[in-house]
Protein 1
Amino acid sequence: MMGKRMHHNSKGRMSSKGYDNSKPSSPGVSPYNKPSKIPGGVSLGKTKVDNLCPIPYIRQQDNAVTLPRLTGILARSADEPIGMDELDALQLELESLLCNTALRIRYFQGEIESIDTNESKREKKNKAAGKQLQYPIKRKFPEDKLVKTKDCTKLSNQPKVPKLKSFGGSSGVAQNYLNDNINSENSVKLDLSQLTLPKNNIPYKFWNSVEPYCAPVTLDDIRFLESLMVQSSNTTLPPIPPLGKHYSEVWADEHISEDQNASNPNKQRASGWSPDASNLRKKFEKSSDNNMITGPLTQRLVSALMEENVMPYEVPDIKVKQTTNTKNSYKNSLTLEKCLRKELVEQGILDPEDLPPLTNPADDEILAEIKKCQTELTAVRKENCRNLKNLIGLCKQEMIRLNLKKQLDQVDMECIDTYKKMVAAKQKKRPITKKEKEDAWRAINEQIRLNKEINALPLTGPNTS
Amino acid sequence: MPLTADVAAQQVQERLRSLHRLIYDIETERTRNEQCIDSILRAEKATESSSSADDSSSSSHQQMQLKSLYKAGLTAAEQEERVLRAALSRIYEIRSIKNERRIQARHAGNKETIGCGALMKMLLSAAQTLPLHVGRVGERAPPLCGAVPADPGHIARPGDAVAALVRVSEKEENWILAEVVSWLPAQGKYEVDDIDEEQKNRHVLSKRRVVALPLMRAEPRTDEPALFPKGALVMALYPQTTCFYRAVVNRLPATHADPYEVLFEDSSYADGYSPAERVAQRYVIAIKEGKGRGT
């Protein structure tokens, strides 16, 4: 090669011009080693880096530095023409401006495209949401087959068209993205951040939900169970409150007081019922008090009196009371009942235990319901306590097993270590010392012992069937 | 129509005046562009600062605002590009007028004799002032731009620079830098002049032996596909000579004013390649397999 060139030089193409014909390859001779004279390349690079501006452009304030010839020509008036000698430099400067502008156009187009891409993505999302809403329609229409033939075209097109569109859009997006990639580095950064795929964290969610069921039992678990146990055994059922006023009385009182207030707005709206109201009500009630239910003994007494008209034995006080007072109020009847009881017990006719309860429980549905609930609750609580006790027992066993397992793991590790040591020793042809042998045996025995112990334990945990 | 010196000078003056006007226009456009860019930068900053508190509706509003700003910037940049292209085309026109004049003068017989130093300078300047192709978006570089080969039926015009394979001795052929004098269609041959005036040789060569040099440079940042890739085998003009030799592209030009960096095949070096040399786009051409060896 060199010889060729020498030959060619000797041919006289260059040698006669006094050029260094022996060193045509010297890089120093190359006229391109003066890049400072080339304005475009240097200036472009500089402005880009200095400004740290993503948009490629040459600031006018840098004119004097980056575009000296252009600045010179601009400073002159139009009368002073451009010289031919200025053309080369001017051309280079204009070219760097043009190239800069071309790059800027690409940058803007890339940015606009990336914004459009984002928009179309957003629209696609909306469309996807819309599609989901449309699915029920699609599912429904096979049911009414008569309508199907008519509306088929309309309906089937509806959900499909946006789908197709969005698919086309997405492939277009990908292409645009590729183009962006090539065209402008700056927009790539933007795009990457905007195109990050949604993370698929379902597996993590799943394993997180499963974890508590598989995790080893800890002391905290036992403590929690014990606290539950204490809670459930300590709580006593709420006591049944004493019987209050009958709802019909309360309602009647409310009603009357309302009426009164409505008729006399000037009167004070006292809390509760005014004494007039309860008096009024009592007056109304007197007529209906006849069929009022009193205590069971009173009822028996009354019925006996009414049927036979003759008393086998006299109870004059009560009789008087009955004739005069029974109709007064329910309260009075209760006192009558109490008196009757007292009298019967005092006379020795009835024992206190034989007395029927003051109010008949069968009569009170609500009380019966409360009692029923209470018995149920007690049963559940007993069952809970039993289960908790069982669980605590199992947990304690599991703890023991876990402890053993931990020990076993340690021993296993020890065994593996010893095995490795022994293999290494064999490879090095080093005799195994007695102590090492003893250690190995000890570890293996321990392993066997622990295994036996673990197997001897009753099964607990998820494996128990 | 013969281009007389007077007419040529008049045409050149006209172009120069037009160029001068265009340069004022360019500056006006640049002011406008700078305003657009400033507002875009402000908007971008605002978007960035507010993007932390990501509110989709307001961010989408900002995006739309940015988009309209970008569109304004795009229009301004396109306008600037138009004016710049117009100005550059004035310069290219002036050059072609001058070239035309030169060819006519040569035909008339009065060859300007230039020394070797001047020739080298001229070659370099011709390479540097070769029209630059800055592609529009989506536009492909035309033939004879950078590494893009000529169309199969391409006929180089008189005055075009070519690489010509000429026999320099009994056993040896060289690819030399030459200029087309005329195309002889009947024979399918070119009449070419050695660029080195000293040789005074006129060659008549078949079309196979003539490779047209690029008529345009390709802008690396916009038209990279029109450049030879790194590692490509090429023919490159050895610096300070007028001969083409086989070389490997070592580095592509970074800007429109940059040359290639090539490694010439050279058996005198241990690895078979010379140190890196800088060769302008105009003087790097695709290799003609089997012909380039010159043996």
Note: The mean pLDDT of chain A is 68.
Protein 2
Amino acid sequence: MTAETQTPAVKKPEPAGDDSFMNVFLRNLWSANNVLLTALSVVLAVVIGAVLIVVSDAEVLAKFGYFTARPSDALSSSWELISTAYSELLMGAFGDPAVFQAWFAGTATWQQAFTPLSETLTYAAPLVFTGLSVALAFRGGLFNIGAQGQAVLGCIVAGVAGFSFGLPIVLNLAVALVAGVIGGALWGFIPGLLKARTGAHEVITTIMLNYTSALFLSWLVIQKGVQAEGRSDAISKTVAESAQLPSPGGVLRVHLGIILAVLVTAGVAWLLKRSAFGFEIRAVGANPHAARTAGISVARTYVLLMAVAGGLAGLGGATQVLGTAHALTPAVAGNIGFDGLLVALLGRNRPWSTFFAALLFGALRAGGNRIQSFAGISLELVTVLQALIVIFIAAPALVKAIFRLRAARSTGLGASLAKG
Amino acid sequence: MRPVRGKRIVAILAAGGLTLAAAACGEAPAETPAASGSTAAEAAYKACMVTDLGGIDDKSFNASAWAGLQAAQKEVSNVDPKYVASSSEADYEPGLRSYVSQSCNFILAVGGLMGEVTTKVAKESSSSQFAIVDSNSGNSNIYPMQFATHQAAFLAGYLAAGYSKSGKVGTYGGLKIAPVTIFMDGFADGVAHYNTVKGKKVEVLGWNKASQNGTFAESFIDQNKGKSVTETLVSQGADVIMPVAGGTGLGTAQVAKDSAGKVSVIWVDQDGCTSAAQYCDVFLSTVVKNIEEAVKEAVVKGAKGETLAAAPGYVGDLSNEGVSLAEFHSFDSKVDAGLKTELETLKADVISGKVKVESASAPK
């Protein structure tokens, strides 16, 4: 993804003439390319997060009260707090060395050792789909705020299909997944159609549809035939075992959804790069007027694009309900649609970058659970970290100014975000 | 332009630095020997709690349970309490599992909604000790803490019927779940008992015990929802209202406050004059569910090495003060002495079994 930003610079003859290879290399490394900007955004977010951790801990903060008298107290306790927090974050996301040692020594099972990774992938899977949904719509020049609503509808339709049909194994799962896609696609199709036919702005219509789907879900789960038998609270029947995404079970919650996510990411990448529809999307996204002049039906592209984006988000909802939740509750979709927006921004609307951004968010979430549980630091810290990373990504000029980066010689950066 | 701006930044930094330096001039405390801390940590009894969706500051059952853990720490110093807050139902399981892997000695699930997942995790981690509030699964390693809340709510219903001037009293719940409807059952029964004893016709709005149907805010946090539900009840004529909805109930307290004495509120869970003191002057009384004491006792027992038997577990009722009707506080002078003595006799009658209070949601 960086190759394109680096190679032209090397070819261009430098006026000074006597630049060594290392100089050119370093200069390009420290120019504002996407990888470096993303990495620095993460670094900045971590630094600000560290300050927040210290500020929110009364005990450590008290030690700053006598900073001039004995600075070592404040510094060492802050360092200890920050390093525990971040090491717990990493261990919660990727694995705890102590548990691996215990596994090799035979006192722990391999499942326990891989639990953190499994959690990361579990949280990442639905975000990949909702992220791709937002990213794809962005490429066509549409701001799909409705990923949340589409994911909720995906949850609803997939969940209901999962416990009502009672089809044989494999078929049941396939039908439930397809149902989720159709549900989401419908919820994307409506704003797409409204945009194409009446010019209603998709931001407004999708936000309204978010409310509609959330309220529909909370109404639906307490209806007879949907609500779990013997329960008076808002929870639906459990999805049939044959319609659940296969998972190793026990402490490992990871499920087939993550593999599906890889395949779908590859599919979306192919769609954008190689297919005729992908070309139309990009053409309409770059300039709808020019696209129309060139003979592309902008209205048709909008409708189709929103339906596909909705289907992707619906699939995200379906993996949530068929993979982890197994029953519908009013909060079953959590925040996956809105997190998908952040993931797409972080991934700069490119399919594979979005995939890795979702993995990063999954890792932060899994690690956040561990920070909260082991170090007693609020889970909100993770939300703040996620938000900070995205703020810095969305404001590349800020990062460039802070680190005094040279401007990259490619215009690719920021161009995709400017429309947002 | 540029140098001026540079100087300005330097000046701001210098000023900020001076303020910080001034704030940092405190005396350093004497070094404390570290030995005492480490011995306590060795034998620490880790009491770990997973909250329900309301979060730790819900001024209701999560807050009570957490207060219980902290109270236990005051009594037995090696108790080391910590908690995780759940932001959605999907967080229950990782929260519990994470505490299993940290080998917590006491893992507390707060709220009946966590019943199923707690049972599942407890079955797979048979060596860990679990506890749960408002649920009983029958697993041998889950210590259930349940409350015969309908007994205290019965007294509250009687009080409300006796105090009401309009002849109509109201109640509503946060969600239609057993730990909520048990309050409403008791309340409705209390009113009905008042009607039979006194030959009156006080009406209950918001809950029908026979059909088990009523008004619910569908939230334990949304105060505006509480306000609108309450306004509906008030417009139908209710002048004493019991919200069983955690933080949502604060909306009811606000409506009562705005009514300038016409409407009064019966609070639930923790005494309203402590947990929501700003509204103390509208709280007629509180149906207290003493989760704090129950949790504290369980943890103290566990920390002392006593076994926590899953059967019968803990059932709080009027006789062991697990549930009770709180003081009248600012209403003390307004509730007439006759009603007060009747409540005392009624309480004794419920304890002795002379008056039977029943609820479909009662702990079995």
Note: Residues 99 and 354 of chain B are 45 Å apart (CA to CA).
Protein 3
Amino acid sequence: MAKYMLIMRGTDDTQAQMAKASFDEMLETVGRFNDELIKAGVLVAAEGLDDAAQGVVVDYSGETPVVTDGPYGETKELFGGFYIIDVSTKEEAVEWAKRMPAFPGAKCEIRRVPGIDEFPQDNEWVKKERAWREQTGQL
Amino acid sequence: MSSVGAIWRIESARIVGALTRYAGGDLELAEDVAQEALAEALEKWPRDGEPDNPVGWLLATARRRAIDTFRRRSVRDEKYALLAEEDTDGGDGHLWDPDRIDDDVLALMFVACHPVLSPEARVALTLRTVGGLSSEEIARAFLVPVPTVQARITRAKKTIAAARVPFEVPPPADRKERLGGVLSVLYVIFTEGSTATSGDVLVRKDLAYEALRLARTLAALLPGEPEVFGLIALGELTASRFPARTGPDGEAILLEQQDRRRWDRTAIRRGLAALGQATAAGRGLGPYGLQAAIAACHATAASVAATDWERIVLLYEALGRVAPSPVVELNRAVAVAMASGPAEALALVDELVATDRLPGSYLLPSVRGELLLRLGRRDEARGELELAARLCGNERERRVLLRKLEDQ
């Protein structure tokens, strides 16, 4: 088994579609999908993000980071939220992504989430992080 | 794995479940036509491209084949004549009913784990129909030849049909007992995956994780059953130790020597949450919940010395009352050794030897050897450990025993 993150990537247009959609309907559609993941026994975590317009962007192109307010209309893709699922293969993660409710124009990126075991265990920073994960019960 | 394989893993339980209901409870027919549809997909999709609605395609293909069978059989069996007739109404035969699909999957689990089947048959049929594993995958996981698995599944389906096992979630009166049957199948699968009884691989994690996944499915479909949560908790807490159970060369590392920093904390957290659910029911813990509670004592202890062994002794006593077994007695003896010393534990073990309740098991001489060693009775200890190594079927566990002998 391996953990995969399904990263939802919307656009300004899909954001607009979402704003127009019925909230109740959306809750039901997403809720049904989440329920499928739960019933299949594969859901690890899921979070959706607040409105991009409420966010800020830190840009590192200059010598010092520059902070700008959202919305960042010039971007083509907006990170909207994610799922982490525990499945046996990448293909299975892809099949789940295909079932995800999404507005036309949106995309979903699928990336494997490596475990801390895959990092050098004698590195002091890895050890430190490991200790923190132990204390807090993190992923 | 192809996309066909991935889709099958996700959908097989629902496809076979829906088809079984459609075929009037005939699991054998449903599974056959589902497998035929899968075979057809494996041949056609790579060539012609994946259909827009893969699940719909699989269902429609399986249904067509089912109707062919209904018609063929209608000559000699009225039941199939009715099924074939019903299907000419132009509808989809209520094949995919979103309101019933959860019950179909549940019914499938209960039927696959039905007590008329042998334990091996229950395991194979569950992994095949509910888990969506192929005969090859099941054979690999259980280290048996593929034809053996195929024969088990074929026989199992015939037994279900001959015994006229109804395709349904058992009525409340039978629920508790039948649920126990389902849980024991998942437990066997988990245990087989987490401790191989033979062969060279100590942790066949994927099989264990599959059992855990099916237990989560069961919890979602049949909420409020404390023992389902107990089994999930036991599975999560046991699996949390997987990263620490084997050394760099694949050798087994015993609990006391494990680097606890390597335990999977997320799994522990999930396990403790599930144990909380099992406890919250307030009906007292069952066998799985109690084993999970024992695993939780280990999972939350910083070291062997810091473990609450007295609590573990009490939990084993409770476990011995609800699910008496010599293995539980042996484990209780190990806990007693930790809580009160080896002499008291040896008395318990000797009682097991005297009553010959664990004949042929390597565990008994292995524990006895260990206790004798701690009591300084080295010659006797050596004899017991040698016996244990001879009886042990798992190559890696045997090496641990041999190392103990060398260390003397």
Note: Chain A has a mean pLDDT of 88.
